[in-house]
Amino acid sequence: MNLLAIESSCDETSAAVLVDNQIRSNVIAAQLIHEQYGGVVPELASRAHQQHIVPVVERALADAKIPKTALDAIAFTRGPGLLGSLLVGASFAKALALGLNIPLIEVNHMQAHVLAHFIGDSNPAFPFLCLTVSGGHTQIVRVRAPLDMEVIGQTQDDAVGEAFDKSAKLLNLPYPGGPLIDRYARQGNPLAFRFPLAEMPGLDFSFSGIKTAILYFLRDQIKTNPQFIDQNLPDICASIQYTLVQMLLTKLKRAARETGIRDIAIAGGVSANSGLREALQKTGQELGWRVFIPAFEYCTDNAAMIAMAAKFKFDQSDFVGQDVSPLPRMSF
Ligand code: KG4
Ligand code: ZN
C-alpha cells in the first residue's frame, strides 16, 4: 500500500509517503516569512503553501522512490487550521486523487498529532492518554483505539504554545519564541522567579493569566532596572518554562489518577520542549507510567503523522468524496 499525505494547516507545507507501515519520506517546507510580523499572517501562509506544494510533493515522491502512478490513496489535513492554508492542501489532494482515480482520505490534524506515536516500533497500548500541546491547542486526550479518542481536558483560553510565544514576545525574542525560551532556559534557574499557577476545575487549563502575570512582573522589574531582561534572560526563561510545565503536569497527573491509565504520551509542537520532556520522564518514573515522547521531527507539524492517521482509515476503507471541504474548527 502506497499512500501520499499532505499537511498544510498552518505555516508548514509538508508531504510524506507511507509504504505499508513505514514512513519512506517526510518533506517539510517551513515559512520564514512570518518571523518579521511576529506571528503567522494567514494570507501570506496560503500564498506560500501555493508556491511550495508542488515541489514538496515531488520531493516526497522522489525521496520515497514511488512514482505518482503507484499511489493507492491521497490523504490531506481537513482541519483544524487556517482556512486559506487548508484549502491549498485540500484542493491539491482532491485534484491529484481525481486525476489518478484513487481514494481520498481526510485527516483531523489533532488526531494525527496523537497517532504520530504509531510511527516506528515503540507504540503505546490502548487505552492511553495523550497530552497534545501546540500553538493552537492544549488537550488531554483519552485514546481508546486509533480512531476512537475523546478530549477529557482542554484549555479555556490560550494554548500553551501561545503562552510560550507570547512570553517570548514580552522578552523581545523573535517569533516563534517557544524554542528560544527552551534554549535560554537550559542555562537558567527555574526557581529564580515565581509566577502564580492558575487554578482551573477538573482537567481544564488556563494560560491567559500567566501571560498577564509575566507582563506585570517584567514591567515592575524594568522600572527599577531597565536592563532587567538582558541581565536575567536565562533565569526568566527557565522560570516561565518551569511554571508552564508544572501546569501541564498537574493536570496530566490528575487525568492518569482519575482514569487509572498508565501509558502516557505527549504530542504537538510543545512536546519538543526539553523541560517538558525531562519532567515527564521523571514523573513517569515516580508514578510507574510508560512514557511515550515523539522524535523531534514528529513533534511539530509534519505530513508523516497525517500519513500514519490515514493508514488507519485506509484499512477501514474510510474515504471521502470530491465534495469534501476544509473545516477550520474541526473537532473529534
Ligand atoms: O504543532 P505545532 O508545530 O503547530 C500547531 O499546530 O500549532 O506547534 C507549534 C508551537 C509553537 O507555539 C512553538 O513555539 C511551540 O510549538 N514549540 C515549542 C518548542 N518547539 C515548538 N515550545 C516550547 N519549546 C519548544 N522547544
Ligand atoms: Zn500541529
TrEMBL record:
PROSITE patterns: GLYCOPROTEASE. GO terms for biological process: tRNA threonylcarbamoyladenosine modification. GO terms for molecular function: iron ion binding; tRNA N(6)-L-threonylcarbamoyladenine synthase activity. This is tRNA N6-adenosine threonylcarbamoyltransferase. Pfam families: TsaD (PF00814). Keywords: Acyltransferase, Cytoplasm, Iron, Metal-binding, Transferase, tRNA processing. Substrate binds at residues 132-136, 165, 178, 182, 273. It catalyses: L-threonylcarbamoyladenylate + adenosine(37) in tRNA = N(6)-L-threonylcarbamoyladenosine(37) in tRNA + AMP + H(+). Fe cation binds at residues 109, 113, 301. Its cofactor is Fe(2+). HAMAP family: TsaD. Transmembrane segments: none annotated. Its EC number is 2.3.1.234. InterPro entries: ATPase_NBD, Gcp-like_dom, KAE1/TsaD, Peptidase_M22_CS, TsaD. The lineage of its organism: Bacteria, Pseudomonadati, Bacteroidota, Cytophagia, Cytophagales. Residues 23-307 form the Gcp-like domain. Binds 1 Fe(2+) ion per subunit.
